[in-house]
Design brief:
The protein is α/β, with parallel strands linked by helices. It folds into three domains: 42 residues, no CATH class; 130 residues, 3-Layer(aba) Sandwich (Rossmann fold); 138 residues, 3-Layer(aba) Sandwich (Rossmann fold), CATH 3.40.50.2300. The protein has twelve helices and twelve strands. A six-stranded parallel sheet has the order 2-1-3-4-5-11, with helices on both faces. The chain has a six-stranded mixed sheet with strand order 7-6-8-9-10-12, sandwiched between helices. Helix 1 packs across helix 2. The longest helix has 17 residues. One of its GO terms (molecular function) is DNA-binding transcription factor activity. Keywords: DNA-binding, Transcription, Transcription regulation. It holds the Pfam family Peripla_BP_1.
Length: 338
């Protein structure tokens, strides 16, 4: 796709480049009709202001953006701490953008960065994200971008992840070792790579123990907590309810505890629970929650380190590589074998 520049707009409209520039900046020196012509043609050609060319940005904004689904999740809070530790050492500011699991919002945020507002981007995609053309366009425009945790597996950029398949396999095996015969899995998405890998690890653990995979106890949750609460309640109200649950998203575990309390299903006597969670309070829940704890701080630090390596290169190019950091199973009372 040909890049649309001020020069291109000037040729299209038979105006000088300086007139185009002033019109785009809403200068009082340019008449309203001319401004309208320029703005309409710029919109038609999908023109994005280029701060590199204008001299307003020459790798000197000293700012990076972190685009994440939410901050309520303690994983992302810890990852931000890791990112800021590296950014501060490099003399950079960090801007946090929340997508709230909306791919449309994610797309709008990344489009905004095309004008050179930030030097680089760290991105963890939404549960709704199914196509990546707008992410690739940002990279094509020369903005270094690193993916972490939730990544686009086929994209040629640096990706920082954890061992989701192995972690899910280990958690499922642990529940079976603790006496569970029917293990449910709460998923976050049917498109996210991390969800697919966690589901694959769960299935493989069942297969290796000669268990049959039951699709009806894999529950795809949404970004609406109230809806997820009802899905979990329906699952645990069945006559053939599961006696073990793996929550692949942190806040799902809280809902499980709430439902079990309401249905008078004591944990771990009636239901054993494992959660992918970085909650420091997991050890103080009643009962203490068994968790798969991700190396969130280290992942944030690794993502930021990779981005700053790219920013130091003359052309700002990013290396297409993957780094996989290991998560840890912390066994606590929620899976205690009685």
């Amino acid at each position: 796709m040909e890049k649309v520049t001020i020069k291109k707009l000037a040729e299209e409209l038979n105006l000088s480049a300086s007139t185009i520039s002033r019109a785009l900046q809403d200068s009082y020196q340019i008449g309203s009709q001319t401004k309208q012509r320029v703005l309409e043609r710029a919109a038609q050609l999908n023109y994005v202001p280029n701060y590199h060319a204008s001299g307003l940005r020459k790798k000197v904004s000293k700012t990076i953006a972190v685009v994440i689904p939410e901050v309520a999740d303690s994983f992302f809070a810890q990852a931000i701490n890791g990112i800021e530790a590296v950014a501060q050492d490099s003399g950079f500011h960090v801007l946090i953008y929340l997508t709230h699991e909306s791919s449309a919002k994610e797309q709008a945020i990344l489009k905004e960065f095309q004008n050179g507002r930030v030097d680089g981007v760290l991105l963890s995609i939404t549960a709704e994200t199914t196509h990546y053309n707008y992410i690739q366009e940002l990279i094509t425009r020369g903005i270094p971008l690193v993916l972490f945790d939730r990544v686009c597996e086929d994209m040629l950029t640096t990706k920082i992840t954890t061992n989701d398949f192995e972690s899910s396999y280990l958690a499922t095996k642990h529940l079976m070792d603790c006496g569970c015969h029917s293990i449910a899995l709460l998923s976050a998405s049917n498109s996210l790579a991390i969800s697919k890998n966690r589901l694959a690890g769960y299935k493989q653990a069942l297969t290796d123990r000669g268990r049959h995979f039951k699709e009806n106890i894999v529950v795809e949750c949404s970004k609406i907590e109230g809806k997820n609460y009802l899905l979990i309640k329906e699952l645990l109200s069945r006559p053939d309810r599961p006696d073990g649950i793996m929550a692949t998203v942190e806040k799902q575990a809280t809902s499980i505890y709430q439902v079990c309390r309401e249905l008078n299903l004591p944990i771990p006597e009636k239901v054993k629970v494992v959660g992918f969670s970085n909650l420091q309070s997991a050890a103080y829940l009643n009962p203490a929650l068994t968790t798969i704890t991700q190396p969130a701080f280290a992942m944030g630090k690794a993502a930021a380190t990779s981005l700053f390596k790219a920013l130091k290169r003359t052309n700002g190019s990013i290396v297409a590589e993957s780094q996989v950091l290991s998560s840890v199973l912390h066994v606590r009372d929620s899976t205690c074998r009685l």
